[in-house]
Structures are given as structure tokens and as C-alpha cells.
């Protein structure tokens, strides 16, 4: 069993925000693998399916970004899942747009969704796929930046970014996260 948790904010107004790239990755993976039914469960929208013989859960916390850990904790407790079976997917300003970075530990780096995950996991050690959204220009408000939509130029290649993220997700289903990092961290 594996669970991918994409971080984002619920609501139409946030759909194309940089901060919602985790939700976008979950939706993209769901389409690719025919996971069509999501239910309200454990403070989130939860989909489940079978991907190449592995039971896969896809979770989009509906708690808003800053409380994402509540939904993750509800999933862990309800399914008696191990933290090692979870991968968090989220936006990262320190990674260039078009790239992903995989890590299995580290600080939140100012990301409030990851702060919440760490708080509810009780550790900084968990699998993560950081999807690059670039840093804003100096002087630009960080919150305004991550809550703004991807630019028209970025939207032209967002599917390629999501495809790459989904490749890493798929690879991690039957490979260790260490091997997945070695393959996708370039």
C-alpha cells in the first residue's frame, strides 16, 4: 500500500495557484491511472485504485494548506498506515520550475503545509516530492506569489512537469525511495 498526499487549498479560486501543484499532481496521476472516484474521508478527498499490482491511495487534504497534517494524521490512524508508505507532494520555491526534487528528510523551509505535516508526523523524516515553482522577484510578497496562478508561459509546460512528477510517483511504487531519488534528482 502506498499513499500520495498532494498539498493545496480547496476551492475553485486556488485551482491553478502555484501552491496547488500538489493537488494538480494528484489529479494528473488519477487521470493517468483511472482513479476516478474521490470521497470525503479523513479531512480530505481520498481516491483509491490499483496501479501495477499496488494498492494506491491519493489524498488531497481539504483543511487548507496550513493544516495539511491533520488530514495526513487522520489517514495514518484510520488505515493503520506507516509513515514510510506516504509521499508528500508540494510546491517548492527553491527548485526551478520544470524540475522536481525528492527528499526523505529536512526542515519545512518556510512551507506551512510541511510544518503541519512535521507537527502531525512527529518527525522531519518522510518521503517528499518537491515540485519547482521558482522564487518570486526580490520584494515580491511570498504569500501573494504562491497564491497566484502559474504564468501563461508556465502553463504551456505544466503538463510536462506533472508528467515527470507522476513518473517519479509510479517508479516509487516498486522501487525504494532512495532509488527513486537517485533516478529523478538531476
Order of helices and strands: EHEEEHEEHEHHHH
Kindly report how far apart the N and C termini lie: 27 Å
CATH class: Alpha Beta
The CATH topology turns out to be Rossmann fold
Q: What CATH architecture would you give?
A: 3-Layer(aba) Sandwich
The CATH superfamily appears as: Peptidyl-tRNA hydrolase
Shape call? globular
Oligomer: single chain
Total number of domains: 1
Q: Strand pairing plus helix content: what structural class?
A: alpha/beta
What is the averaged pLDDT score?
A: 96
Main sheet specs: 7 strands, mixed
Unreliable runs, pLDDT <50, ≥5 residues? none
Relative strand content: 15-25%
Q: Tally of extended strands?
A: 7
Strand order of the largest sheet: 2-3-4-1-5-7-6
Radius of gyration: 15 Å
Percent of residues in helices comes to 25-40%
Layout of strands and helices, then pairs:
Elements: E1 2-6, H1 21-32, E2 38-41, E3 44-51, E4 54-61, H2 68-79, E5 86-92, E6 100-105, H3 112-121, E7 125-132, H4 142-146, H5 152-155, H6 158-174, H7 177-184
Parallel strand pairs: 1-4, 1-5, 5-7
Antiparallel strand pairs: 2-3, 3-4, 6-7
Helix pairs in contact: 1-6, 2-3
Highlighted features:
single chain, 186 residues, Rossmann fold, 7-stranded mixed sheet, 7 strands, globular
What does this structure look like?
By secondary structure, the protein is an alpha/beta fold. It has a single domain, classed as Rossmann fold, CATH 3.40.50. It is built from 7 helices and 7 strands. It has helices at residues 21-32, 68-79, 112-121, 142-146, 152-155, 158-174, 177-184, and strands spanning 2-6, 38-41, 44-51, 54-61, 86-92, 100-105, 125-132. Strands 2-3-4-1-5-7-6 form a 7-stranded mixed sheet, sandwiched between helices. Strand 3 and strand 4 (54-61) form a beta hairpin. It is globular and about 45 Å long. The relative contact order is 0.19.
Amino acid at each position: 500500500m502506498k499513499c500520495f498526499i498532494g498539498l493545496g487549498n480547496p476551492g475553485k479560486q486556488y485551482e491553478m495557484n502555484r501552491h496547488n501543484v500538489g493537488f494538480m499532481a494528484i489529479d494528473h496521476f488519477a487521470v493517468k491511472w483511472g482513479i476516478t472516484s474521490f470521497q470525503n474521508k479523513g479531512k480530505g478527498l481520498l481516491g483509491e485504485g490499483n496501479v501495477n499490482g499496488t494498492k494506491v491511495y491519493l489524498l488531497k487534504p481539504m483543511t487548507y494548506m496550513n493544516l495539511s497534517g491533520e488530514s495526513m494524521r487522520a489517514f495514518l490512524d484510520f488505515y493503520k498506515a506507516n509513515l514510510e508508505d506516504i509521499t508528500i507532494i508540494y510546491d517548492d520555491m527553491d527548485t526551478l520550475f520544470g524540475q522536481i526534487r525528492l527528499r526523505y528528510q529536512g526542515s519545512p523551509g518556510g512551507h506551512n503545509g510541511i510544518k503541519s505535516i512535521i507537527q502531525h508526523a512527529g518527525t522531519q523524516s518522510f518521503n517528499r516530492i518537491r515540485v519547482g515553482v521558482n522564487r518570486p522577484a526580490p520584494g515580491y510578497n511570498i504569500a501573494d506569489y504562491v497564491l497566484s496562478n502559474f504564468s501563461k508561459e508556465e502553463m504551456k509546460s505544466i503538463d510536462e512537469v506533472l508528467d515527470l512528477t507522476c513518473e517519479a510517483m509510479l517508479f516509487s511504487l516498486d522501487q525504494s525511495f532512495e532509488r527513486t531519488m537517485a533516478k529523478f534528482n538531476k
